[in-house]
Amino acid sequence: MTTATEPTEPTGPGGSAAPDAAPSPARPRRRGAGRGEGTLAALLLSPTLVVLALVIGYPLLAALRESFYRQGEGLDANGFVISGDRFAGLDNYLDAFTGANGSAFWNAFWNTTFFTVVTVAVEVVLGLAMALVMHQALRGRGLVRASILVPWAIPTAVSGLLWRWVFDADGVANALLGHQVLWTADGWPAKFAVIIADTWKTAPFIGLLVLAGLQLIPGELYEAARVDGASSWRQLRSITLPLVKPTLLIAVLFRILDVLRMFDLPYVLTGGQKHSVQTLSVLAYNEASNLHYGPAAAYATLLFCYVVIVAYVFVKLLGADLIAEARSPRAPEDRSARLFPRARRADRTAQAGVQG
Question: What is the CATH number of domain 111-328?
Fold first, then answer.
């Protein structure tokens, strides 16, 4: 009599499964698993989204709506005086570009752009120099790193008052120069005062971010460079700057977005009515203080669009650079061999001698 047996999988030598054995079918995923995870994620994110909608979304929409209205008195079609808010359409935006307020808007726009370009460029150079100094193995390095945070930790309003005392007519700056300069008056001295004060405060921020990037660079690259006879400038150009570039670009992006919204430093340092240091934020504040809420909202909306455009372009360029690096990654050893072949050959000779 024969008995029926269940078919067994083919086995190879030693009882292991044969190489050509078909894999067991995967278990089907539960249909409701993905939907349940999406619902849970939405529930967990909903409090944050509600807060963002109340804190950012509603004020933004309210300012956008306000920019289409004007306040004050006017005449209707029958010649009667009417007061209060009236719909103005795009008149506030047209006046900002070509109308009665055009000169004030373009002056504030160019001042904002000028401060952004100059201060960020100076802060990048000084921040990189600070990071290189703090990265060296010197005595008291921890104290230097802690003390460099002091200017950045001081509130901007307090920093503005401090530099206002320094740039006073009888202040420290004129005493050191031996010349009477009206730093807080209108003109180029006021621009230089704002640039110096902003650089003093925020250059340490870039320095600390760059220092974090420097600490990730392997020391073997610099050893290979020294063996190959590379100078300090060649090491900076071929090793330090390329490898610290992602961190430096992030620091520059943060500073660009911060300077574009500059308000408190020029307002406290030189006052809010100086033509040469009036930024878009200061202009919007002055218009709102004069109860011109429509033009003020229009200026604020234009500033918001300016910041979004700059951030978008910068992020697109930064993202393309990172994607290109991810597609063709180079290990530190490959970079060392490519830049400094003599050190690579010396290393291979030493390894061959040890093995022999």
Answer: 1.10.3720.10
